[in-house]
From TrEMBL:
One of its GO terms (biological process) is SCF-dependent proteasomal ubiquitin-dependent protein catabolic process. One of its GO terms (cellular component) is SCF ubiquitin ligase complex. This is RNI-like protein. It comes from Podila minutissima. It comes from the Eukaryota. InterPro entries: Leu-rich_rpt_Cys-con_subtyp, LRR_dom_sf. Residues 210-229, 264-288, 503-552 are annotated as: Disordered. Residues 272-285, 506-516 have a biased composition (Acidic residues). Residues 537-552 have a biased composition (Low complexity). SUPFAM superfamilies: RNI-like.
Amino acid sequence: MPALVVSSPKAESETMVAPTFLVKKQVSISNNGTLSSNVLSIPELCDLIAPHLSLHELAITVRVSSQWYRHFIRHLWKTVTLASTPASLPILALLPELGHHIRTLDWANLTPHWNMKQALAGIDLSSLALQHLHLVNCQTLQGPVLEQLIQSSSQQLNSLRMHDIGKVQGNILRIASTLPQLQHLTLVMDEDTTCRHNRSQPVAPALASMVQSPGGLGSHSGEEEEEDSTVTFEITSADSLPALLDACPRLHTIELIGLPSVLSTDQGQDTQDQEVEQDVDEDDISGSNKNSIMVLETPMRYLTSINLHSTALSGSTLSAIFGRCTRLAKLDISQTSPLFLSDFHLDTSTILRDLETLMLSGCHFLDGHGFKELFQAAPQVLTLEVSDTNIDNTGLAALGRFCPQVLDLGINNCHQITDQGVRDYLGYPPQDTNNSNFGMEAAAAATEQGPYRNYTLHSLSISNCSELTGQGIQHVLTTCAALRSLAFQQPEIMPESMFPHVLQSADDEEEEEETEPQGQESTNNSFAEEEEEASTEDTPGTTATTTATADSSSSWACHKTLELLRIKHLNTINPGQRQYLNARLRELRQLRVLHIGGRQLELRVLDGLGHRLEHLYIDDLKREVDLEDVQWLVDHTPNLTRLWCRQLIRHSEPWKVLRGARKGLKLW
């Protein structure tokens, strides 16, 4: 039996074992080919072998002899997974005897009426020395039960993760603050308690089968025990984070997702009123003094990531996070419902130089200066999300001034920004910290050499901003020369914003009606010249004179880099605009994904698409897709792998023809 468990005839099994074991194995094999038991009496050698054995093999190994049991039992119990099933009861019964071997405990709830408090009743947990604790799918997480579970491991527990929690009773953050070695804290509330993840069965089924299940241990009761009155007064709130930071200086990651607001709407309003009265009574205390008190707190040396998605918090708590967590690389306080922060203030000396990702969607700063303070404190931010906020033109101007390195920007559903805000954001050239006059010199050089181009921004989403017009979108298209992804879906934006040509006035239209043949001929000539310029754009030996004669405003600044374009609501396409759209799309040689739609949009208007196109999403066509459209798709999009179009009727004749021509094409 030992030879079967430890040594395998397969070649790959021997390569997994350490070289020192292979040497000792060759020395210790006797003439009859069996392995000497003295070799496995070395604990260090057993530690090298154990990671290469499965749980079932470890369960067999500990049953070979008492000596093997002593060396391998700690590896069998190093990681234990419990589930709310009868198979977990024998493992719970062995916790007082073998619990000191457990380093990682994963406990998942699989039944709707499982009660952790009843399961732990009468079990001695003093021998537990956990380093990682993971609780999943708890309908009700009770604070006293969690304290009972981690009490003996408080000095070595460094990871506490709780996922899919239905309801919390007690202050979980206060309990976590009793863990001085804590490095990772996760508390994720379950949005839908009916959705449960399938978890694996308990660890070590062979060992569990050796123990007879004691009657009554962790029995299921159809009703949960009544809640203790002392627990209901303690509430888990994100505003307890400052105290947690004081107690756990070794924290690396904090995730509090989905924690609801502590107070109701009426109570929250009363609390805001009380805060206003307190501010009035404490007028003699200046804001600088308050900030100076915050700075005196011990900074967090290791904390790099905080995720508070859909978690309510106050402005003072956010101020404390910025003031103390100076090594942050990612901060997510995005909200699914509006969150109003009225007491947020930062000291001007607060700088988070490592912060690269900042998610603020759904956060409203009522004082009007919150965004400016945030952007000033995070000059190195690369990814910024401010959708569904009250950011205005002043905030965008501050973003362009203090955060010149932003790569990804999302400003969807922001109804206070206008065209001027977009101009202000894109009007700041990158600053040189070693030269204070660099910005002025760059602006002067841009005025002499031509319009300023932004080569930093790679991804921009600016959809459903009601105060934004086509001029703002046009400024983006003519300024951002390094865009790879652009999304703008404005119901009231005219298609002229995509085409940088001057709109005609009423007088010009009357003149055009009088000279319609000449105007039509001029238009045709202009398109012929444009196509000729496009064909000779990348031709070697093109002179500077030829480049100078081209109309620099006719092309988008990002036509050489754009890979994803999302535009909709193009409902006023006339023949002239359709030609401009076709000319612009023909220049997008790197385009891979296109979302486009409009009731007056014709599918053939896209015949200028390059052969790199992989995904095509078309919406709101005024008619169904016919065989002629399908033939166009087959001829002009050889690399297309996904097509989404409502007007392509499933199992119709065009659908069957396209399916037959493109076997690997995924159709909606």
